[in-house]
Design goal:
The chain has 5 helices and 57 strands. The chain is mainly beta and 780 residues long. The strands form 9 sheets. It has an 18-stranded parallel sheet that branches. Strands 8-9-11-14-16-18-20-22-24-26-28-30-32-34-37-40 form a 16-stranded parallel sheet, with no helix packed on it. A 6-stranded antiparallel sheet has the order 48-52-46-45-44-55, with no helix packed on it.
Amino acid sequence: MQQRNNKTRLLLLYVFTILLVSCSEKDYYDPEFKSNNPLKEIVVPTGFDWSLTTSINLNVTVDDQFNGAYFYSVEVFDEDPVNNKPLSPIAKGVAKKDVTFSTRITVNKEIMGIFIKQTDPQNRSVTRYYDIADEINATFVTASSGTRALGSRTHIDIPEVPKEYKNVPTDFIELTNPGQNRELISGKSYVLTDNYTGNFLYWSNGQNIRLYIAEGVKWTIENAQSFQAYLTVILTEGASIEAKSVSFVNGSDLVTATNASFKAETIQFTNNGSSFLNWGSLSVNTFTMPNSNEAKNYGTINANQIILPNESDFVNYGIIEASKLTLNSNSDLTNNYSLIINGEIEMTNGGNVITNNQQIKCTNLSLTNGTLNNNCYFECQKKISTNRATINLNKGYIIAQIMELGGTKIYFNNGSMMEAKEKIDHTTQASTYNGGTTSRGLMKAPEITGQGFTYEGNLTIECDNHVEKNQYWENYKIVSPAEITGYGKSTVYIEDCIGIRNNGDEGEEPEDPEFPIINTDGKSYTYLFEDQWPFYGDYDMNDIVIQIKNITHSSNNSNKVEKYQFDFILQAIGANKVLAIATSLERINPANVKSVTYSASTPTSFDVNNGVEKGQNTAVIPLIDNARVFLNHPIGYVNTETLNVTNLPTITVTVEFNNPVDLTDLSIDDFNLFIMADVNIIPATSNQRKEIHVYGFSPTSKADTSYFGNNDDASNTYTYYASRNNLAWGITIPDDFKWAKENTPLTQAYTEFSSWITSNGTQNPDWYTRPVADKVIGLK
């Protein structure tokens, strides 16, 4: 109550002062009178500009594939539009070859980046993201997306079986009884010439000893067989072995020639120095590869499980089919033809590398601390799971139903593609997708979820249900020229060495956008004023609360505005003064205004020509003659003590120009909305009227500027309409807003308001989104 009485006494003092001034008795006006700082606990930094928005000069170059024959549409968003949610662009225009879309946009200071959407003449769209900067030069011109030449399997020459393995040497020693203990001699060749059932026992300290299984001979090994050091078992053409468990120990080798076969429950190579060369067929339950020397398959292998132990190196030139493939630490697998795993490929313990030059198919892939180099076709029927892995695609294609990726780096080189039929999900470990600098890569999935991942390089992402890029939570990053489009909507053409993987959206018949380009900004701007200038007032900032929204530009094919519209809603009056409201379009010459029309409540007390005030240097457009009369509420406060007036009219103002104006001339930063106090004493038509503007905005030509620098005003020290403590009498909130209740300073209605000020705007730039519920009033 005391605050209310103080406000009333201050008001009476001010009215008395005005009356004295109007009688030319300025000796009674004390310009030195100072009122108390209403925010005495706050020290406002020198130079703090009270702005919650920032301006950006924006230039957009499109990727014109039609050589200037058609216009492309360009839309700019301050929220993530990738999920096709209903968003209104903050700017919209056209561009084509040699025609850049240039404008000046305004975004909230907490916004970290903008999204720019290019739509080509065939109605195909892509979106790119750019971090906030004073000037953004965005371009959609990047490397091509591939050539349309049908791929084919690369022919790989398979070497013939060397003669030393193909033909039995003439100086062989025939084994008539392999089960007999014997000492094998270094450098000698032994041949099994008849079918045999049993094991082979021998002692050997020699080297380069060879045991041939002659053509057509079958050896059946009933019990476990261990081939000792330095013995090479060679199955010549048509020879065969059937066994239960066979091991090759300490440098013993296995060679199977064409049409030879080896069937066993288990085959394993243990210790170091062994080799495996297969031109025939191997059928085995569990096959453990050598972990050094040569291990190559030129024929066929059928297995339940294949294990590559530590430090193994295996190359496949033939056909392998198994149920499971396991790579232990630092193992390398190179596939040059066909590898089919009807279960899981598991790469564990780190350092493993799979290089695929032709075709790999599996059910699941689990890749931990390893590398996958895919230069052709890699398919997982169900899931790919990665953890701290690297995937290098080089004109390669990888596909799975689901991908669960964490801490993974994926490189899309030379027009590569990754596709999930159902979903790509990310763990909290950071992953990176890099499209390189050559032909555009493609990442495709109906749904992409999770956090902590980055798109960069020449990469297109196709997705309809993508996790939103939240401005306050860096759940993912996208760095141009990486871009996002709808699922199946990109123009990217992809083929690997086997065939075409993505043909690209062929689009509709090309045509220009429909002119004029009509863009309605979906944002709202709420203007708050104290009416006591040049005295402080109580700083509840609710003497006038007025909202501007639905700002609409109608532009031609030169991106010049022919018609300009906006809506305003007077939401609250927390003042006893008679107040009028107008706005100045700061960059518009009043002579260029053809007309100003109102959907209702046309102001009548202003002296206008074609709807703009006479005698002004800028286009000043009246909005309200008398705020109380406008709301049909002649006495008492409106919506500052309670929400007592809800039938608030929305007025649409339409401005047409004699000559179209640049989009840059109609930025919200040049929308100089202001109030006029005591218009019953100093009429709006007066050349010495009492104007109160948002902090930093200039008065009009009709304003009385004699109060600048007097009382609590310090405009000569800081900027226009700044107090001696650098407080503001007018603030713009770039959103819907719940204003403070009567006699409630903003510091109490919004507890983060103080830290925003004292931090020079670096802390809590979105303070206006978190009010104290019982200290504010707002429309539902």
